[in-house]
């Protein structure tokens, strides 16, 4: 009976759900709790993907479920243009409290890509300049604006050209993106690339914003050096350019700080948030100073569902748990513990190039000549053993681990043991 239901739902999905999105598994999911999920067949799995770093507290955290239920009883949707409501107001205040520097005012959207589009519009509107500098290897989402600034795979861009004009890509200081010789000092090299753009392509007075993920996500789980981010801040200040940090994936404790920007002490002009902001409900945010938001002409941007009451209530509950359970600190020490364990057990394999982590944003990068063969095989073996993992990077060369910040250590050990044995058997 259960098997019949699985086949029935899978059959309907194959007919009615667009095949455009990459299909990672054909599992039919019934329920999920914490780091575990169960299929319609009743099989149990461990989830090291966490809704692509969205379920920071794992699945169905009781505080979030309660907040969502209570909010849904009172108000599901209204439209922020037509009135204020408690959850959105309190969430904007909370974001202002935890965001770095003077970033105290929020525009809410429904997703990361949408928030990136809004941030590009905001930067152009408030500076009156057209240019946007983004980075090769970066991923910012699937809307047309976000696709235009994305540089992590040509397949995301192909078929949609011409994309947004006046977007220029510079080199992210991640050696794994370069073919051939790697410069000794990636930071200076990448900063000089921006100066070259100014000389050869667009004068700095025409640049509205520099947009960067402080730790590269989809492109390879690689942190930008602190001096590089500080260098970007200097360049931006010198030329009146806005610095935008895409913290869609790095936000809310994932990197062992509430926001990855805190590692460098660099305060961006615009902070873009989504994913773990609301622990799995659709929500994005563009956070900037009051002064900057006030320069964005009224009516120049908007959203029907952005900041909807239920997503905001979920976000407030999620942030409250992150704060009261000290999950940011936990992410820092547990991330180190995981990386140390993985290094102790896996570094001996020559096919592994690097094991690295910033808090609980952890990557295992394989050598480029073997990655496209080995990484899919590891993912398959893990899935056979009921562990869901994901890779990233231009050639999928890095396995990325996105464990919930509050994962129980025994669950973590169980999942890591499956992963390590799958890797070991394929080396
Ligand atoms: C850094 C970053 N920015 C933007 C996005 C796009 O977010 P969404 O899928 O919510 O549109 C993602 C999604 O993976 C991301 O990792």
Characterise the protein shown here.
With 427 residues, the protein is of the alpha/beta class. It folds into two domains: 2-60 and 327-426, Aspartate Aminotransferase, domain 1 (Alpha-Beta Complex); 75-324, Aspartate Aminotransferase, domain 2. It has helices spanning 2-16, 50-53, 62-74, 86-98, 112-127, 144-149, 186-200, 226-239, 261-264, 290-295, 309-324, 327-346, 368-384, 409-426, and strands at 29-33, 36-39, 44-47, 105-109, 131-136, 167-171, 207-212, 215-216, 222-223, 242-246, 270-273, 284-288, 352-358, 361-366, 387-388, 390-392, 398-401. The strands form four sheets. It has a seven-stranded mixed β-sheet with strand order 4-12-11-10-7-5-6, sandwiched between helices. Helix 3 runs antiparallel to helix 11 (309-324). The structure holds pyridoxal-5'-phosphate (PLP). Pyridoxal-5'-phosphate binds at residues 52, 111-113, 116, 139-141, 213, 217-218, 246, 248-249, 274. Pyridoxal-5'-phosphate (PLP) is lined by residues 52, 111-113, 116, 139-141, 213, 217-218, 246, 248-249, 274.
């Amino acid at each position: 009976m259960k098997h019949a239901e699985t086949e029935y739902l899978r059959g309907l999905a194959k007919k009615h759900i667009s095949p455009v999105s990459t299909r990672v598994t054909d599992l039919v999911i019934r329920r999920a709790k914490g780091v575990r999920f169960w299929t319609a067949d009743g099989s149990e799995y461990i989830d090291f993907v966490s809704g692509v770093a969205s379920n920071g507290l794992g699945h169905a955290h009781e505080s979030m479920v309660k907040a969502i239920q209570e909010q849904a009883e009172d108000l599901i949707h209204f439209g922020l243009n037509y009135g204020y409501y408690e959850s959105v107001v309190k969430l904007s205040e909370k974001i202002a409290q935890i965001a770095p520097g003077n970033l105290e005012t929020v525009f809410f959207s429904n997703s990361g890509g949408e928030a990136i589009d809004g941030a590009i519009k905001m930067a152009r509107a408030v500076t009156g300049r057209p240019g946007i500098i983004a980075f090769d290897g970066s991923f910012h989402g699937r809307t047309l604006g976000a696709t235009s600034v994305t540089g992590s795979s040509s397949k995301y861009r192909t078929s949609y050209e011409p994309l947004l004009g006046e977007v220029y890509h510079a080199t992210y200081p991640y050696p794994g993106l370069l073919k051939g010789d790697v410069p000794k000092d990636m930071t200076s090299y990448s900063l000089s690339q921006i100066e070259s753009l100014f000389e050869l392509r667009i004068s700095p007075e025409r640049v509205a914003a520099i947009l960067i993920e402080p730790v590269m996500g989809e492109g390879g789980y690689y942190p930008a050096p602190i001096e590089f981010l500080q260098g970007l801040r200097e360049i931006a200040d010198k030329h009146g350019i806005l610095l935008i940090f895409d913290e869609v994936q790095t936000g809310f404790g994932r990197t062992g700080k509430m926001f990855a920007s805190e590692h460098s002490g660099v305060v961006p002009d615009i902070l873009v948030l989504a994913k773990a902001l609301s622990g799995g409900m659709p929500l994005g945010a563009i956070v900037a100073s009051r002064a900057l938001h006030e320069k964005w002409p009224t009516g120049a941007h908007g959203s029907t569902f952005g900041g909807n009451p239920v997503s905001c209530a979920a976000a407030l509950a999620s942030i409250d748990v992150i704060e009261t359970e000290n999950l940011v600190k936990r992410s820092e020490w547990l991330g180190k513990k995981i990386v140390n364990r993985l290094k102790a057990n896996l570094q001996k394999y020559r096919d592994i190039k690097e094991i690295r982590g910033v808090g609980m944003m952890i990557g295992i990068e394989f050598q480029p000549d073997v990655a496209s063969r080995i990484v899919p095989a590891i993912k398959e073996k893990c899935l056979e053993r009921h562990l869901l993992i994901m890779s990233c990077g231009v050639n999928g060369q890095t396995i990325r681990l996105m464990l919930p910040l509050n994962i129980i250590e025994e669950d973590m050990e169980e999942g890591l043991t499956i992963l390590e044995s799958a890797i070991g058997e394929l080396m």
